[in-house]
Amino acid sequence: MNPCHITTPPSAGFIAGVAAATGIHRADGYEIAQLFITHPGPRRLHETAQTVEDGMRSLARALDLGPGGLAPPTIGRRIVIVNGITALDYGHDQYVMTIPQPSQDWMRFVGDGAPCRICLVFAPLPLSADQAATDAHLRACFDKGGVVWGTAYARRRF
User: Is the pTM of this model over 0.85?
Assistant: First the structure.
């Protein structure tokens, strides 16, 4: 890590409100695990759309994610899979972000060393969004520079 690039990751309280979805993209004989990270928007008294976006930007910096329009940087072994529990090490010194209910195929794929493309969107996305709304939101955010990504791997099992 570059000592000039020290960032403070978001609080565990903020991370508890983050939403994540997993999948495996398969196309033209190529497979890559995916982890999509977003936030449903302000739900607590102290949250606003701006504080949510600021928290997501902080998370992106803590993960060393790069702009969506460029090749995704490799961000290291950030995925942890232990006893069927999957988490993302986002740089906090005490906490990790639990990844809710990835499929057994996804966990096995990532656990066996496959890359995982992490895609994070700054702008809030309601939990009620269907696939079409999610796709439209992702495209609109990408066009505004509001999407970042990186490639992570699982830590070796001991």
Answer: yes
CA dihedral 82, 87, 93, 95 (to 10 degrees): -100
| Amino acid identity, position 1 | M
DSSP 3-34: TT---PPPPHHHHTT-EEEEEEEEETTEEEEE
pLDDT 10s per residue in the chain (158 long)?
A: 444 455 689 999 999 999 999 999 998 888 999 999 999 988 888 889 899 999 999 999 999 999 999 999 999 999 999 888 899 999 999 999 999 889 999 999 999 999 999 999 999 988 888 989 999 999 999 999 999 999 999 986 54
Output the CA–CA distances (angstroms, integers) from residue 123 to 1, 49, 73, 148, 157, in the order listed: 27, 8, 21, 11, 35
Mark out the alpha helices in the chain (DSSP H runs): 12-15, 49-63, 104-111, 131-143
Question: What gap in Å lies between CA 141 and CA 147, rounded to an integer?
Answer: 6
Region of 41 please: left (phi>0), alpha (psi -120 to 50) or beta. left
Q: Give the separation between CA 10 and CA 8, rounded to whole angstroms.
A: 7
